[in-house]
Amino acid sequence: MQRYFVQESHWQENKVTITEEDAHHIKKVMRMTEGDSLIAVHPEGKAYKVSIESVGESIICVVREEITDNKELPQQVTVVQAIGKADKVEWVIQKATELGVSRIIPFQATRSVAKWDHKKQDKKVARFEKIAKEAAEQSERVKVPHVHRVLSLQEVIEETKDYDFRVFAYENEVRNGANRKLSEHIKEMTPGTEVCVIIGPEGGFSPEEADELYQSGFTSVRLGKRILRMETAPLYFLSALSYEWEE
């Protein structure tokens, strides 16, 4: 059943009003009409089955029942992704949302190939938020991940200082044959914990960045025995976490 996230101001008692792009999608793409059902999601993370009462410039729906099936990851996971080409970041946002990420923070690494124009950041973030919303609807989630503006590594460290687990995917852990497997780390990430994983750029972390992360309390981890692309690494991590705690 089609799912739409609806802002809080559009909920009144047992009525929900859907506007703008979502209203257009309902009318023109899905071709729904009075009496058809869909799922509306409240910002508090609750989903409801609703039926369309009227179709006009806005879609007026009546709430029928709450849907209690929870499909969110047990942990609150923040993926800090080194920026690369725009399509790679968009891919990570879409797929990480499908896999249950809670928050995505792009960061400017020393070896990042791409350099984003700060004047265009608002436009980029708006597009990323739209991608996250659509992916959350498609994967039947009740929360849309928050997409942050681009931060420096120092800002990331400060932003995540109170997290329960802070790790970074370090290629040297693979090359040096680190003994501790990712699964051992993940078993410690019990439900309800806040987890931050930092993914480096195409050229990897610089030695200075790795040292700064170690000194700030981050733990380096290896993601399997192979060197992964920057857009593959966060998906590997989220999939491993999901397998351990959801399957």
Automatic annotation (TrEMBL):
Reactions catalysed, as given in the entry: uridine(1498) in 16S rRNA + S-adenosyl-L-methionine = N(3)-methyluridine(1498) in 16S rRNA + S-adenosyl-L-homocysteine + H(+)
Cellular component terms per the entry's GO annotation: cytoplasm
High-level lineage: Bacteria, Bacillati, Bacillota, Bacilli, Bacillales
Protein name listed in UniProt: Ribosomal RNA small subunit methyltransferase E
UniProt entry tagged with the keyword S-adenosyl-L-methionine: yes
GO terms, molecular function: rRNA (uridine-N3-)-methyltransferase activity
Sequence intervals crossing the membrane: none
EC assignment: 2.1.1.193
GO terms for biological process, alphabetical: rRNA base methylation
Domain Ribosomal RNA small subunit methyltransferase E PUA-like positions: 18-60
Keywords: Cytoplasm, Methyltransferase, rRNA processing, S-adenosyl-L-methionine, Transferase
Function of the protein: Specifically methylates the N3 position of the uracil ring of uridine 1498 (m3U1498) in 16S rRNA. Acts on the fully assembled 30S ribosomal subunit.
Top EC category: transferase
Residue intervals of the Ribosomal RNA small subunit methyltransferase E methyltransferase domain: 71-241
Entry similarity comment: Belongs to the RNA methyltransferase RsmE family.
Subcellular localization, as worded in the UniProt entry: Cytoplasm
